[in-house]
Write a structure and sequence with these properties.
single chain; globular; Rossmann fold; alpha/beta; 9-stranded mixed beta sheet; 282 residues
Length: 282
């Protein structure tokens, strides 16, 4: 799904301004033996403090890039630190990694929170996050060390769902890994929310055009790896996971692990993810 399609639909909701390259500011810099880790902020028209870690090998060259989007939880790693160890491993193998803070970073002290009974408010959260992700990608593609034809997305929980939408509207995404994702933001936004059947139906209807599953149906020339936890029945029912995979357009693999929702803590899943990314990106 391209910007042109959105215009034809009258819903160019994820548009970004491409006249100026987003400005990057360095917050902290860590120099390691084979790589560097920069904590940075990226400026956009709506927010001048989108924070991330940017890891790159010290040796000059053109490298594949992996963009990571974290999970939501009341945990210390529910932010850009979630995949930091994994990113260092990949960086040492010749990959650049960008690990972002989403709108849900550091729950409950997040930049934005959904309401679950106000679709106008909740729509704006999703739209803003996708726009921010597009600016991060825009910036990535301007960096001299990036091979723009070898970009991958990795996401967990809400991070996976945001990236799923991104994979349907952005060109040249070569590979995606989605961990513990479901098909529709509404399923989680309305979780434990008391609403009448009519109000619930209206909420789902008005959020439906943002559902990740619709964008995965439109993905083109992208390979996918889905990772789910066998014990993650409360947040990711198997029938929902199966539907998400079924509707995804492209080459796809599915793996289940003896894990709950915190699938990033599973060593086998981490190894599988790294090896799969290397296979896809070269």
């Amino acid at each position: 799904m391209t910007n042109e399609i959105f215009k034809n639909m009258g819903k160019d909701i994820f548009k970004i301004v491409e006249s100026n390259i987003p400005e990057m500011k360095l917050i902290k810099y860590l120099d390691k033996k084979t790589l560097s880790i920069s904590e940075i902020s990226i400026s956009t028209p709506s927010n001048d403090a989108l924070t991330a870690f940017y890891l790159k090998p010290k040796k000059k060259g053109k490298y594949p890039c992996v963009l990571y989007s974290h999970w939501l939880a009341n945990k210390h790693d529910a932010n850009k630190t979630e995949f930091l160890s994994e990113a260092e491993q990949l960086c040492n193998k010749g990959y650049v990694c960008l690990l972002i803070d989403t709108v849900f970073a550091n729950w409950p002290k997040t930049r934005m929170k959904w309401k679950g009974d106000d679709y106008k408010h909740d729509r704006q959260i999703v739209i803003q996050q996708i726009v921010e992700l597009r600016y991060f990608l825009f910036w990535i593609r301007t960096q001299p060390e990036i091979d723009v034809n070898r970009i991958a997305l990795v996401g967990h929980d809400f991070g996976a769902m945001f990236n799923a939408v991104l994979s349907g509207i952005e060109k040249n995404i070569k590979a995606c890994v989605f961990m513990a994702a479901i098909s529709d933001f509404s399923d989680w936004f309305t979780l434990r929310k008391k609403m009448t059947d009519a109000d619930l139906l209206a909420y789902f209807k008005n959020m439906s055009d943002l559902a990740p599953i619709k964008y995965l149906e439109m993905a083109n020339n992208t390979s996918f790896l889905f990772q789910f936890g066998k014990k993650d029945k409360s947040f990711v029912p198997k029938e929902n996971a199966d539907l998400l995979v079924e509707k995804t357009n492209g080459n796809k693999e599915v793996k289940y692990y003896d894990e709950g929702h915190a699938i990033h803590l599973n060593a086998t899943a981490t190894t599988d993810r790294i090896n799969w990314l290397i296979k896809q990106l070269g």
